[in-house]
Design brief:
Largest sheet: 13 strands, antiparallel
Strand content: 25-35%
Radius of gyration: 39 Å
Shape: globular
Distance between the termini: 47 Å
Structural class: alpha+beta
Length: 1619
């Protein structure tokens, strides 16, 4: 029955919920129920069609309606929808509107279809993605509403309702908001239109210099050379002409008719329809013929096909319904378009062809940097990298080519980083991921394409970064390791069990990557290791091979060792030229990939397979699909099922994960290894859900010990087996050996019972030998019938096989066998089963000791506890452990193969998480070298080793016996540290001369209580250094010794006390320790004096109040008593010091290092930011402890926190060697801390491992004057934001009820009252506030503050008292690049709402609600007060003015000082500008007792001239959206970033109608391009909700975004949501 003849009947049916019917095409009649505004508007037309030979022409009138009513009511579900194709002859800036109405006429669903393009465009959409209120669920019909003009469109291929719209429907120009699912990282194909909205953040150069032009030309020539195939392939040309004839393309109307071009999901080949691959066939074939044979006919056909393709929808901005996987069908369109580029550039349709090429290459994704978390990268690298490269080079303008290549290179470099979780890309172990798993078959081609890009760009600026290429190298090396020579094992073959290998182009990738530079950092012009691998893999003497050989490179040997790839639960065991693939699966790694037509019997690929490839290919190693028994992959333990039951029970994709975590491999010294799996079958149809087993394989030398235990299931129908081998058997050529008998007859079978006393020996036909100690062994040589994994057709083959039969429904079955791989005669002459000993073999553990390698290996399925084990007392469950005792040096590896990923999904970007393994070792051991992945402590003669396992990687360390020499080690270090000077003869003579008979220095006043007698202790250091320095005149001088001892006794006996407690507790004992360490042997000659000295040093620690033992003071007090404990070898006190230091070196709730990685001290009245003095001293003392105790049992694990303090905190507060005064506490006038803090950073560097050292080196550079650090940081614990670009640094220092500003004390900081009232320092030169600035400045005009300018004495914030703000609202939000912060100021009767909004080149400052009801003087907001830097110029009433010296108050448009411009954003604001030879100040005057005062200004720190200021002012990139006591908000139009401070719940409506609303007060940053919202709670822990809901309304659609707010000490921290 023709659907076109019975259209009305089908329309009626389609609205019945019980039967979803469809109708298509318009071949004969127009269905009578289709109504238009005018009956003459509808007709059938053959002018254009997308199916059959006709379409429906709607010649519409303005706002006309095409109605599709129904007699029945249809209740759609969200997956139902409509599909059709629409032809538009002329592009228009309007749309068709589709409306679905109820019986009452309500419109619950609607959508628009833009008519912006010409030709056929697909209209596919589900009800889920339509607009409307969705209130009325019933649909009685739908209609199409025309634009408000006359026009016509053609409709065809109409299908409604679709039962389920394609999930991968592609948004495009016509329906850009269609299908939100397509924005998932996984469905990258469908994101081309989303990416089209990106704009380049790389500026377009006006021109290219000579070198840039040369680089472009070099790349173009290389590309031409790479794509030049010398002559046209005849078959390709014939296919082009054949397809062209079938397509029957003809001009019609303003377009074409011919075979419809549709996506593969829609194509009907029987009806003559074609798809992208047919376009590729025609375009490639015609291009070859035109280019090489100069065929004019093919040239004409080439452009005819292009015009037709674009008319059919293969065009810019078209999604063609769905475009998924199109990249695999269009590659030759691009490679041949490069050959045809000159012709294309001259073509009348050039712009359409180029825009199509660029759009479908997805080059637009590279306009911005690579977006972290992008999935399925292998597809893009493989299919679109070269199309993108070609598209970039097809731009007409060379500057556009250069920019496009820069963007592409940057994107590639960004994508070539280790990807998290199970999303596509390269993993940290070198495995490559696709479809959520380790997938070598998808990696081939990828290496070829990336290698080709590297080859094209080598020695140009477009070459991917060194880091990117090193990441890529790890993937190349991994493939080298798991391929033998080119092919890999069945276990890791995905859905292609007997296919897949490295191809010639992949091998060439090794050479291309090698030639890109020395990735091994060995100083060579190329990477010699990759070059050697290339020579091994390359089977021809290519030019690259000849070059490498000429440079002395020899072909590498086949890889040897054991390689761990636990992102695939895989181990690779290699020696000589053979390879074993061991494969398992777990909760994060799938077992096998089974498709509808692929790998139907591949269920058992990862059931503990142990596949030996003794030859370079699978076939030569005995693996052939013909006749293959899919139940018997070597090593696996399986239930032997008939093929009907083994066939996947799911008709579509099966990628089963286990419910067990424990499966994977580990290694020791990369030479030997092991594999283990908790096997558990899933609960699927035809599976046995209670089938479990515990399996392990131990790999030593060329031997494998295979153990199994706990084999259980309830399948009484079919036997459970563990396969030893299954390999092809060639009659007349092969034989097998069973217990010394050689067998070769096909049809032979035997069953043997093995035991430890009578093991079974078998050798297969490939020189692999099996020794079975436990189990019923079956062996056969037989012709086998099997099924083809795709077609299910019967196949046959002869195989020799052996397996251990565990019987049906086994309970606690076990096995043990050894495999000896290709042993030589000498090895076979030994007793193989005596080469190892099984120490434990049960459900809890498999433990093996190998006598030949002296390795003990543990596969621990359950917690391990042993009194008898030689080394270990306890080991946690699910641990793989190997160790070798080398002359009492324990070489140890520990591994948990689990990736420990929190989200269990098809793919996830959730990262692998650390798993801590605590091992309890017998006796005392210490690590030979630092290891950031381990921690160690001791208790009761046991060593506790904590290993931080991650990414499934083994962690190796070397343990050596701990001996009681730690005190001596520490003492030696202290001695070397203390002997830091060589005093002059004159200095020592002067000191000895000034020493009284009692031991006092006559130049000192010991009655003074101000701490000045401290000089006595410092003099002792000088005397001790002279006495112990070998090059000093007084070296070991007896008189000097007596002088020192006399002066020491005087000091100890006097026990000087100062007025300030600090002297006796900190500097006195700390500095005295230095000389005591140097002179300890001499002091110890007098036991009484020695004891007194020790007591003196200990006194401060033993008597310190708890309040003194925090932060810097606590660390200093410990270090003051430290030497006493070392000199007396006081173990308990050292353990106490270690515990206290460990506590100090953790995140603190008050004084010390805070969760935001800045430092606080004197926090009694609120948290006080205080790094450059107290923080510096804290680091100095704690660092001294870490340096001294390194590699001893007293070592504290706090180094990483100090590293984070510097990398995440300290480096942010320095600019051009100057620190932000906000961090200085009461020492605000001191400006030179950079050099001292830099020294601390250098010391941390020396203690750090290589990874952390690199980060610390960067911090060092930034502290030392390198201003390249850029970004934004909100330090929420201190109400403090820092914003940096490479040409300036600025900060906002707020206070609240939780925090205090800079304190005063001991005569310092008496003018600090306003030092944190919203201070906004700005550093451009770095000299803005140095020198005498804080001695001569106006302390009521700190930069950024709002304050009354009275003359009354200001309170002095002694020790922080009175330094709080009266409101808890102070804080901000940051995305690490941009940020905004705000506060409610409430001090001394003055209130104000102050906010800062930070962008790239500029930042905006807003103030509202400024009130000072009882004030007596003017209130100013200070834009800046700083050292004078050149001219002061301003614009007022359109005139530029200059202020040389003096003061003026004026309404200014902008003010320019140095290169910093201040732009007034609030008309009529009066500014007071003041300058003299020393200072410049700029203030907004709010008058006396202001009510609801405001300010709004923008600061641009890089405006060189007044003309530049005027030009910038004419077109400001920002808009102030709100400036009230409820909301302050700014939008940057160019960046499309909106920043908002919500002081209370509310909403903000933008100029375009978008609305942002919040149900709690918050700081909010909206990055519209990235579809991300960042928020923070500025009230922090004072008032912190658990959740905040942000409502975003765009285009009438409302989204509610729920964010979990950070709690406790992280309250106030920024959080993020994507939508």
């Amino acid at each position: 029955m023709s659907p076109k003849n019975y259209l009305l009947f089908l329309i009626t049916l389609c609205f019945c919920s019980s039967a979803l019917a469809q109708f298509k095409g318009f071949e004969k009649d127009i269905p009578q129920n289709i109504k238009s505004s005018n009956k003459h508007e509808l007709s059938l037309s053959s002018l254009y069609y997308k199916e059959g030979n006709q379409s429906l022409l709607w010649d519409f009138s303005p706002n006309g309606i095409l109605d599709f009513p129904s007699d029945s009511v249809f209740t759609p579900n969200g997956n139902n929808g409509i599909t059709l194709w629409i032809y538009n002859e002329e592009p228009q800036q309007d749309s068709l509107r589709f409306e679905f109405y109820s019986t009452k006429g309500d419109i619950s669903f609607h959508f628009g279809f833009r008519l912006y393009a010409t030709g056929w465009r697909a209209c596919w959409i589900s009800f889920n993605h339509m607009q409307g209120n969705n209130k009325t669920k019933e649909v009685a019909g739908y209609r199409i509403v025309a634009p408000s003009r006359k026009g016509r469109v053609f409709l065809d291929r109409l299908t409604f309702p679709i039962k389920k719209i394609n999930d991968r429907t592609t948004p495009d120009l016509q329906m850009p908001t269609n299908n939100s699912l397509s924005y998932r990282d996984l469905w990258h194909w469908c994101r081309v239109w989303q990416w089209e909205q990106y704009t380049y953040d790389i500026p377009l150069a006006k021109s290219l210099n000579t070198n840039e032009k040369k680089e472009l030309k070099d790349i173009e020539q290389r590309l031409t050379q790479a794509l030049d195939i010398a002559k046209a392939p005849k078959q390709a040309v014939r296919q082009a002409y054949s397809t062209f004839r079938k397509a029957n393309i003809q001009h019609s109307g303003k377009g074409f008719i011919g075979a419809p071009v549709v996506a593969p999901d829609e194509v009907n080949r029987r009806n003559g329809e074609i798809s992208w691959n047919d376009l590729e066939t025609m375009l490639a074939g015609f291009a070859y013929d035109a280019y090489y044979n100069h065929s004019k006919t093919s040239l004409k056909h080439y452009f005819t096909v292009w015009d037709y393709a674009i008319d059919q929808g293969f065009a810019y901005g078209s999604g063609m319904g769905t475009n998924h996987h199109y990249g695999y069908q269009i590659r030759k369109i691009y490679t041949t378009s490069w050959l045809m580029r000159d012709a294309i550039w001259k073509s009348p349709n050039r712009d359409k062809i180029l825009s199509t090429l660029i759009f479908w290459s997805a080059l637009q994704e590279t306009r911005i940097p690579f977006q972290y978390g992008r999935d399925e990268l292998l597809d893009s690298w493989h299919t679109l990298l070269i199309p993108r490269t070609i598209s970039a080079l097809m731009f007409i303008n060379e500057t556009e080519r250069a920019r496009a290549l820069k963007g592409l290179s940057r994107w590639i470099s960004g994508s070539l980083q280790y990807t998290p979780g199970t999303i596509g890309g390269i993993k940290i172990d070198g495995t490559t991921f696709h479809h959520g798993g380790f997938y070598p078959a998808y990696t081939t081609g990828v290496f070829a394409m990336i290698g080709k890009f590297i080859e094209l760009t080598t020695h140009t600026q477009y070459l991917p970064t060194l880091e990117a290429r090193q990441t890529l190298k790890s993937a190349f090396l991994a493939m080298r390791n798991y391929s033998n020579k080119y092919e890999w094992g069945i276990g890791i073959s995905g859905r292609h069990p007997f296919k897949g290998s490295m191809k010639k182009d992949d091998v060439e990738g090794f050479a291309s990557l090698a030639l890109s530079g020395d990735l091994s950092d060995e100083g060579y012009p190329f990477d010699r290791h990759l070059a050697a691998d290339y020579l091994r893999l390359c089977d021809k003497n290519t030019p690259k091979a000849r070059y490498f050989k000429s440079q002395g490179v020899q072909a590498a040997k086949a890889p040897e060792g054991f390689f761990v790839y636990n992102y695939g639960a895989t181990g690779i065991f290699r020696r000589n030229n053979w390879m074993v693939t061991l494969k398992g699966y777990n909760t994060d790694v799938w077992s096998s990939e089974i498709y509808k037509k692929d790998n139907r019997y591949g269920r058992y690929q990862s059931y503990g397979s142990v596949q030996i490839m003794g030859q370079p290919s699978r076939t030569a190693s005995g693996y052939d699909e013909k006749g293959w028994d899919w139940n018997r992959l070597p090593g696996t333990t399986t239930i032997h099922l008939p093929f009907k039951l083994l066939d996947s029970p799911l008709s579509e994709t099966t990628m089963a994960h286990s419910k067990e975590n424990f499966a994977g491999s580990s290694s020791l010294e990369n030479k030997n290894g092991m594999f283990a799996i908790k096997l558990m079958e899933r609960n699927f149809k035809n599976f046995t859900p209670d089938f479990v087993a515990r399996k392990s394989v131990f790999c030593f030398g060329n031997r494998m010990i295979c153990l199994g235990s706990g084999i259980n299931n309830s399948n009484h129908c079919y036997p459970t087996e563990t396969t030893l081998f299954q390999s092809t058997f060639h009659k007349g050529r092969n034989s097998i050996n069973v217990n010394g008998n050689y067998l070769e007859k096909v049809g032979w079978k035997q069953e043997l019972i093995s035991s430890e006393a009578h093991p079974v020996y078998i050798s297969d036909s490939y020189n692999n030998h099996y020794f079975v100690k436990e189990g019923k062994v079956k062996i056969q040589i037989a012709e086998q019938k099997s099924r083809h994994e795709k077609t299910r057709a019967i196949t046959k083959g002869i195989f020799a096989s052996s397996w251990i039969d565990h019987g049906k429904a086994p309970q606690n079955a076990n096995y043990e066998y050894m495999v000896w791989i290709q042993p030589d005669a000498e090895e076979l002459a030994n007793k193989p089963l005596e080469s190892y000993k099984v120490l434990q073999h049960d459900n809890n553990a498999h433990i093996v000791y190998d006598r030949l390698t002296n390795i003990t290996a543990y596969a621990l399925f359950e917690p391990f506890e042993s009194e008898t084990d030689k080394l270990f007392r306890n080991i946690p469950a699910e641990t793989m452990l190997m160790y070798r005792n080398d002359n009492n040096r324990i070489i140890l590896s520990v591994c948990d193969p689990s990736l420990n990923i929190s989200e269990k999904a098809y793919t996830t970007k959730e990262p692998s998480r650390i798993i801590k393994k605590e091992l309890k070792l017998k006796g005392l051991w210490k690590e030979l070298e630092d290891n950031k992945q381990t921690e160690i402590f001791y208790k009761d003669n046991y060593t506790f080793l904590i290993v931080n396992c991650q990414h499934g990687q083994p962690i190796e360390t070397i343990l050596i016996p701990y001996q009681n020499s730690d005190f001596e080690t520490i003492y030696n270090r202290m001695y070397e540290k203390c002997l830091d000077r060589n005093p002059s003869k004159e200095t020592i003579g002067r000191l000895m001369k000034s020493l009284s008979p009692e031991g006092a220095f006559v130049t000192l006043n010991y009655r003074a209580t101000d701490g000045s007698p401290r000089k006595h202790v410092q003099n002792l250091i000088t005397l001790a250094c002279a006495y112990q320095h070998p090059e000093n005149t007084f070296y070991h001088d007896k008189t000097l010794k007596e002088s020192y001892l006399k002066a020491l006794r005087f000091w100890i006996d006097t026990n000087h006390q100062a007025k300030n407690w600090w002297y006796r507790y900190i500097p006195y004992p700390k500095e005295l320790s230095t000389s005591v360490v140097l002179m300890s042997r001499e002091i110890n000659e007098n036991p009484e004096l020695f004891d007194k000295t020790i007591k003196y040093l200990r006194w401060s620690y033993e008597n310190a109040a708890p309040s003194h033992m925090t932060g810097a003071n606590g660390a200093d007090i410990i270090m003051g008593s430290f030497a006493a404990s070392i000199l007396t070898k006081n173990e308990s006190q050292m353990e106490d010091f270690k515990e206290r230091m460990t506590q100090l070196l953790t995140i603190q709730p008050s004084e010390g290092i805070q969760p935001d990685y800045l430092f606080g001290q004197h926090c009694g009245h609120g948290r006080q930011l205080y790094f450059t003095s107290y923080g510096k001293e804290f680091v100095n003392s704690t660092l001294a402890y870490l340096e001294l105790c390194k590699d001893t049992r007293f070592q504290s694990p706090g180094l990483e926190l100090l590293q984070r303090l510097f990398t995440d905190g300290v480096q942010w507060i320095f600019y051009n060697k100057q620190h932000d005064p906000n961090n200085a506490g009461r020492f605000i006038s001191s400006s030179q801390y950079s050099s001292a803090i830099k020294v601390l950073a250098e010391r941390i560097c020396k203690l750090s491992n290589s990874d952390a050292r690199n980060n610390m080196k960067q911090a060092l550079q930034h502290i030392g004057g390198d201003n390249s650090l850029t970004g934004n940081r909100m330090f929420w614990r201190f109400d403090y934001m820092v914003h940096r670009r490479n040409n300036y640094m600025t900060s906002s220092r707020m206070t609240s009820t939780r925090t205090v500003g800079n304190e005063a004390g001991n005569g310092d900081g008496e003018f600090n009252y306003y030092a944190s009232n919203g201070v906004n320092y700005l550093f451009v030169t770095g000299h803005e506030y140095d020198g005498n600035f804080f001695k001569i400045f106006n302390n009521r005009q700190y930069p950024g503050i709002t304050a009354e300018q009275d003359n009354a004495p200001l309170p002095i914030p002694d020790w922080g008292e009175g330094g709080n703000n009266g409101n808890c609202f102070a804080g901000g939000v940051s995305d690490s690049l941009y940020g905004t912060c705000g506060m409610i100021l409430d001090r001394r009767g003055l209130q104000a709402h102050k906010a800062w909004f930070y962008f790239d080149e500029e930042f905006v400052c807003l103030g509202a609600g400024i009130c000072n009801a009882k004030g007596k003087a003017e209130v100013f907001t200070t834009l800046n007060q700083c050292n004078r830097d050149g001219k002061v110029q301003y614009m007022t009433n359109g005139k530029k003015q200059t202020l040389k010296n003096g003061s003026i108050q004026t309404v200014a448009d902008w003010i320019l000082h140095g290169q910093t411009a201040y732009f007034n954003l609030l008309p009529q604001t009066e500014y007071k500008i003041t300058c003299d030879t020393a200072l410049f100040s700029l203030n907004a005057n709010h008058g006396i007792r202001p009510q609801q005062g405001k300010y709004a200004y923008m600061v641009h720190p890089s405006i060189p001239t007044t003309s530049a200021a005027a030009k910038y002012a004419a077109k400001l990139p920002i808009k102030v959206l709100a400036n009230t006591e409820k909301i302050q908000a700014v939008r940057h139009e160019k960046l499309r970033i909106t920043e908002i401070i919500f002081y209370q719940p509310g909403e903000l409506k933008l100029e375009n109608g978008d609305i942002l609303a919040t149900d709690t007060p918050c700081a909010l940053l909206w990055k519209e391009k990235e579809k991300r919202i960042h928020i923070a709670n500025p009230r922090c822990e004072s008032e912190n909700p658990e959740k905040t809901t942000i409502t975003l309304i765009q285009n009438g659609q409302s989204k509610q975004i729920l964010l979990e707010m950070p709690q406790k000490e992280e309250a106030g921290k920024s959080c993020t949501a994507s939508y």
